Amino acid sequence: MGEARKPVQIVILALIVLLGGYAIGTSAFGGGGKPKEGSRAPSIELLGLDGQTHTLDEYKGRPVVLNFWGSWCAPCVKEMPALEAQWQQWKDQGVAVVGVNVGEDQMTVENFVNGTGVRFPILLDTDREAVRRYGVSPLPTTFFINAKGKIDTIHIGQLDLSTLSAQIGKLVNP
């Protein structure tokens, strides 16, 4: 009977070694994972509605409000006027408001933006790569990134004008 259990024990031991190695490796070398407040903002490279490829490096040394949204998301639509108003208010002080549309085609996003009068930069995350890098769920989710490239605050859910203004104020005057 002991001989029949030996192959099962070897398989179990091999699985434990593999899983342990994976756990040690991801903690030592970073496993991707969801970014947290205080961590460096993950890099992104996305096509903008302007036809150019954009990265977060463009905003190096500036505070960034990175908002993940979709036109089908009612809270996302409701917060757009507040984001636009804050971008207009703070852009001359170097604050960048950047919208990342999640999973929609360019025509849908262009129609939405044109219909709402949004003028801040909009990037297209059609394959949801930025969503994966930032661990975004649900929408809307907004990352307030300081001038050093670190995530200051993560806000999940709809933003109102006063909360948005207070968060941006913290980025500008830490």
Q: Explain this structure to me?
A:
With 174 residues, the protein is an alpha/beta fold. The protein has helices at 2-29, 74-90, 106-116, 129-134, 161-172; strands spanning 45-48, 53-55, 64-69, 96-102, 122-125, 141-145, 151-156. The protein is 43% helix and 20% strand. The chain has a seven-stranded mixed β-sheet. Helix 2 (74-90) crosses helix 5 (161-172). The longest helix is centred in the first third of the chain and has 28 residues, at 2-29. The model is unreliable at 23-31 (pLDDT under 50).
Which key terms come to mind for this protein?
7-stranded mixed beta sheet, single chain, elongated, about 45% helix, about 170 residues
Helix/strand/pairing category: alpha/beta
Radius of gyration: 21 Å
What's the main sheet like? 7 strands, mixed
- Terminal Cα span: 69 Å
How is the topology of this model organized?
Elements: H1 2-29, E1 45-48, E2 53-55, E3 64-69, H2 74-90, E4 96-102, H3 106-116, E5 122-125, H4 129-134, E6 141-145, E7 151-156, H5 161-172
Parallel strand pairs: 3-4, 4-5
Antiparallel strand pairs: 1-2, 1-5, 3-6, 6-7
Give a short overview:
The protein is α/β, with parallel strands linked by helices and 174 residues long. It has 5 helices and 7 strands; from the N terminus they run αβββαβαβαββα. A 7-stranded mixed sheet has the order 2-1-5-4-3-6-7.
